[in-house]
Write a structure and sequence with these properties.
heterodimer, A: alpha+beta, L,D-transpeptidase catalytic domain-like, 5 helices, 10 strands, about 25% strand, flat, B: alpha+beta, 2 domains, elongated
């Protein structure tokens, strides 16, 4: 936590020193900061993806709350083995908005089937459940399921963001094998068309801990440039 | 079987071996050709995931700070971002790890284990109304503080236990022990408070509030004045 706070201060200080030395900041950097200012004016948490630093920051009001190092940043798209037409990278700096994220949809629902009246203070219930000791809100007894390490997030720009702990293997034989399997599924009408995805590869624990941050309407700021 | 050769799959048994081998070879070739055509068709249809490097293509957005020099634009953005940063003590809560940090000027004053929301959804069987037990994310402010905070139990507290909620204002709704010794109110019913269930600290077990142990709660209560910003992520 302390390191993060110091890193945030150092970044600002470096920017100030760079301008003091008459080096004009790069237009991309200025645009990135201006986009961040728009996001930081709102109280919501936003994410900052820095392809150059290979990092995903969690920020609010310009304060870096957490930083997740990325092991990889790739574009993944479905391509035939022969005759590929690879997508070009989305331009940066930009703000990607989450259309639907797993933080909204992967929820457990508690639904009692019926409600019984509260027992009066001097009467005991017929089927007495063991009284909570001490009294108070009932602690949740069942553990919360662990978030997955690989999941997709739909973005409003038509792309997906794929968070994963490992990329699919890309060897020729592996691709041919996957193509055969996928082709066979398509022949049987079970093919799956996926939009191209910006893929963030990170440690499994990091993938789990950012899972809940990908909620509908969350902004992901993609920055570039140095001061 | 009266002296004529038997016919099996179009091949006369007893014919010279050369013709049998010819048929077998032709059959194998036909099978291989059919399999190859099938495989190629399937291969052409299949579309595996192919990875390519993310290339930085810079396209500057228009409309932001246009008409100013780069230095002025950068200085203005930095200045505005600086104004948004917290002054004095502020609280950061990591809802995944269930950790609360009290900081001031980049220095950590206290780190504590806390409990945050389960993220579960409770549905009222009578009307389908739903409550999401999330700890809110983003920036909040300590709006008020209270010693020995009482808890006015909302409907969900009864529904979760399978009871019909009593009418508003009824004595069953008042609970004076569950929230511990201190409460820091962050608005919309979200409170940083104590707990009777200390063994559950460090786990996501609450209905959205943030629970702390007694000593940590007292420290945060004393060092986070009203107006302290709280960043939850």
């Amino acid at each position: 936590m302390r390191r993060l706070a110091l890193a945030s201060i150092c970044t600002s200080a470096a920017a100030a020193l760079a301008w003091a030395g008459n080096e004009p900041p790069s237009p991309a950097y200025v645009a990135s900061r201006e986009l961040e200012l728009v996001a930081a004016r709102k109280p919501q948490v936003y994410l900052v993806l820095s392809p150059e630093l290979r990092a995903l920051d969690v920020r609010a009001r310009g304060v870096t709350l957490d930083r997740i190092p990325l092991a990889g940043l790739e574009l993944l798209s479905q391509q035939p083995v022969l005759g590929r037409s690879l997508p070009s990278s989305p331009s940066v700096p930009a703000v990607w908005m989450i259309k639907e994220g797993p933080g909204d949809t992967d929820r457990e629902i508690i639904a009692p089937t019926e409600l019984r009246p509260m027992p009066a203070e001097d009467e005991e219930e017929e089927e007495v459940a063991p009284a909570p000791t001490p009294a108070g809100p009932t602690p949740t007894p069942t553990p919360i399921p662990e978030p997955p390490v690989s999941y997709r997030v739909q973005l409003e720009n038509g792309w997906d963001l794929w968070i994963t702990d490992r990329l699919p293997r890309q060897g020729f034989l592996r691709l041919v094998g996957t193509a055969l399997r996928d082709g066979w599924n398509r022949w049987r009408g079970r093919g799956l068309d996926l939009p191209p995805a910006v893929t963030l590869v990170m440690a499994p624990e990091d993938a789990r801990r950012v899972h809940h941050l990908f909620r509908t309407g969350t902004a992901i700021l993609v920055t570039t440039g140095t001061p | 079987m009266s002296g004529e050769p038997a016919v099996v799959f179009g091949v006369q048994v007893g014919q010279p071996p050369r013709r049998t081998w010819l048929w077998v070879t032709l059959g194998v070739i036909a099978l291989v050709a059919m399999a190859s055509v099938g495989c190629l068709s399937v291969l052409r249809t299949g579309r595996p995931l192919v990875a390519t490097a993310f290339e930085i293509t810079t396209v500057l957005p228009g409309g932001l700070g246009e008409g100013l020099g780069l230095e002025k634009r950068a200085a203005r953005a930095e200045s505005e971002l600086g104004k948004l940063s917290p002054r004095g003590a502020y609280i950061v809560i990591d809802t995944y790890r269930n950790r609360l940090h009290l900081l001031e000027g980049g220095k950590v004053l206290r780190s504590a284990i806390c409990s945050t929301g389960t993220g579960r959804v409770l549905r009222d069987p009578r009307n389908g109304r739903e409550w999401v037990f999330d700890t809110p994310l983003g920036e909040r402010v300590v709006q008020s503080k209270r010693k020995d905070p009482p808890w006015a139990k909302p409907d969900w507290a009864f529904i979760e236990e399978g009871y019909k909620p009593p009418p508003p204002g009824s004595p069953e709704r008042w609970d004076t022990v569950s929230l511990g010794d201190y409460g820091l109110y962050m608005g919309d019913g979200y409170i940083i408070h104590g707990t009777l269930f200390k063994s559950l600290l460090g786990r996501r077990v609450t209905h959205g509030c943030v629970r702390l142990g007694d000593e940590d709660l007292e420290f945060v209560y004393k060092h986070a004045p009203i107006g302290t910003r709280v960043y939850l992520y």
